[in-house]
Amino acid sequence: MEFLDTIPNICEGFPFNKGDSVLLNFWGDNEDLIVLDSLSENLSKKGIIPLTHHCSNFLFENVILNLIRNNQKFSPDYLSYLSSFKNVIDIFMYTPSLPGKISEPEIPMFKEYLCELFNALSNGKKYYIQLNVPTKKNALNAGLDYDIYNLLLCNALSVDFPKLKKSCREKAESLKGKNHIDIVTDKNHLLNLDIHNREWFIDDGCGDFPPGEVYIAPIENNSSGDLLVPIVILRGQIYNDVLLTFKNGILVNTSSTEINNFFDSLPSEYKVLCEFGIGLNPQVTELVGFSPIDEKVLGTYHIGIGMNHFFGGKNSCPFHMDFVFTIDNITYS
User: Fold this and answer.
1) How high is the mean pLDDT of the chain?
2) In the chain, what are the domains?
3) Mean pLDDT along residues 260-289
4) Per-residue pLDDT for 136 more than 90?
5) CA 289 → CA 173, 206, 274, 294, 323, distances in Å?
């Protein structure tokens, strides 16, 4: 299966209604524009109004660098235009990176450009959706063989969206009013989460793709215990059966010296237990060590560390890392 074949189904999963305007922000080059065109065409068939914005490597390698060298910033009118859209789909053929021709003194201004662009595209939206396309560059960033990455993503994106939306809605409804979660992994490791008065969120095609989870932001200073995670990938290195220890909502230790060293180098707000989620996509069937796919596997669970202010939490920081696991037992009360 190829990604282009999944686009009609993807467009069935989007949460937009007839008459809605949607900005398609495309991180790709001219030879990739068939992806943007196909998404636009299939949205328009549903009466949804697609408008496009193209962020190519050429744009950043040449135009943006020329503006930086002339000490010119983005026009406020341009940023206001992007901010005016309430529905945005960010489409990634690759992850934005520093241009090859950039000099060291130009890097801070370039990062400022990216920050202003991202804020205009993401802040204050009704729906901000991220869609990663299975390309060789994205597979490399995921640490996966391209053929495996393509198969996993295309399978996940071919999910029956009406059934997925129903199962996500039913799961979230069944958990309303619960205040605590007790998680047992590896038979004797217990993690307690406090979710008192926090809201469950649903990702059934309205958040990150591939879709298929419900999730919540636990109380930031009131989760404690141990959790065994089968696979952690950090800086390209694979770590198996990592034990994470939390106290008062903060990651205080792991069973890996290398992972400890990484988190010890970070500010305290980067180590906050910020998310608990449940995977519900039946088209994703195995853990591969890449959390954006693993966390959607039906029957898995995940926690996040770092930022959660976008989904009902109080911890704001530029960091979010997920850990996916299976359980021996889980209790909601």
Assistant:
1) 94
2) 3-158 (3.40.1830.10), 162-332 (no CATH)
3) 93
4) yes
5) 29, 23, 20, 7, 9
